Please model this.
Amino acid sequence: MVKQEPEAYSFAQFIRDKTTAWTGVRNFRARNFLKAMQKGDEVLYYHSVSEKAVVGIAAVVKTAYPDPTAKPDEKGDWVCVNLKAVRAFPRAVSLDEIKARPGLKNIPLLRQSRLSVMPLTATEAKIIKGLGES
DNA sequence: GCCAACGTTGGC
DNA sequence: GCCAACGTTGGC
Model:
């Protein structure tokens, strides 16, 4: 799952762009999760702050490579991945709904709200997709 | 290498 | 707009 403020880069914009480079991640843990992404992996797209809901699905089209927006003197080897927008959910899955699901109690989104890139188990992803596409 | 101070993020 | 949580920075 990746997280983004809709004011900064909304899923609607992402759909229009079709693909995007997921750059600008400057957190070590988030970076490690970026590096772990495999081509074809599904990515849930969460709108933070003003909307607080999972709004759609994307997919990894290119695995981690050096982030072109990172300055050479910035410490850490920052990476980005390329994502493609797959589809918007017919119905956004709100943070409240996620909190209400016992099966989603342990997702990093709830446990560590500031992490911008995080892994989900297959089961967790399935529950959220089930809600969003029902 | 520890820890206080500060900045940022994100939920409320 | 506030504040808690977290990460980062800098003094010691």
User: Anything to note?
Assistant: Chain A has five helices and five strands.
